[in-house]
Amino acid sequence: MKHDTGTTANVPDRPKRIVSVSVTMTGHLLAVDAPVIASQATPPSVITDKQGFFSQWSDAAAKNGVKVAYQGFEPDVEKVLALKPDLIVGAASGAENAEKFYDKLSAVAPTLLYRHDDVSWQDLTARLGKDLGLQKRVGEVVAAHEKRVGEAKAAITVPKQAAALVRDNQSAMTVFTPESAQGLLTSLGFTVLTPPVSSRARRRAGVRTSRSSARRRSRTPRRTARSSSSATPPRRSPPPPRARSGRTCPPSRTSACTTSAWTPSGWTTTARAT
Predict the structure, then answer these.
(1) What is the pTM of this model?
(2) Burial annotation 194-221 (CB, 10 A radius, 16+ → b, else e)
(3) CA 114, 95, 56, 169 torsion-angle sign
(4) Crossing angle (nearest 10°) for helices 121-132 and 135-155
(5) DSSP 8-state symbol, 196
(6) Could you tell me which of 109, 113, 110, 139 has the C-alpha nearest to residue 125?
(7) Is pLDDT above 60 for 267?
(8) What single-letter DSSP state applies at residue 258?
(9) Rg of the chain over all Cα atoms, to the nearest angstrom
(10) Helix H or strand E segment including 211
């Protein structure tokens, strides 16, 4: 069976003991009633229960008796082995990316790894349903979601101005776009802002350099002296680049300067001192 890390043989048609090594994928699996017996957990926070399971599906996990396989972002292969799974499902992207552990996990049980950062939850769930033989349940879940979105859309008044969907985790800020996997606002009829990207930023996948590196680039490079017969006038150093959208550098050299970078799920902006 093909997945985002390769091809896995001997995948059971109807697995009975699935261990999820991705807390992100666990929600998708539970949504389609996959037989998950244990899952990776994250450190408990405001968006999880006390075990480290995400709040939006922690009740379903408790109802189905899902245990914590281990806590942390790197798979604990020994603990996974002790659970005796007949199938392991995990992520090929994100903080819990298990690609470098694929060979070790595959020695325990057939392992399927999927990217979840560049697809909608509907497409990812449909792929899981196909691979696990749960297509009918996927159709029911997606239909129920679309019905709920339609009801919510009819019950609200969408503002005329565009909206921005952001997530701030104190060290970085992510700005989601209309192309992001998190497309609920668009489904509800909102116009979602798209951060402007310069042509240079597009070529560099949206990575914007800090003010200090821009100053270094603007300096005239040293040249070796040549004889008067072969010397050519040195090129003028380019003017300092103008401040770009998504990067704010106050005049004070001791102030904070923010740097934006593009990721498949949106813009990430990081603040630091200059």
Answers:
(1) 0.66
(2) ebebeeebeeeebebbbbeebeeeeeee
(3) negative
(4) 160
(5) -
(6) 139
(7) no
(8) E
(9) 24
(10) helix 211-218
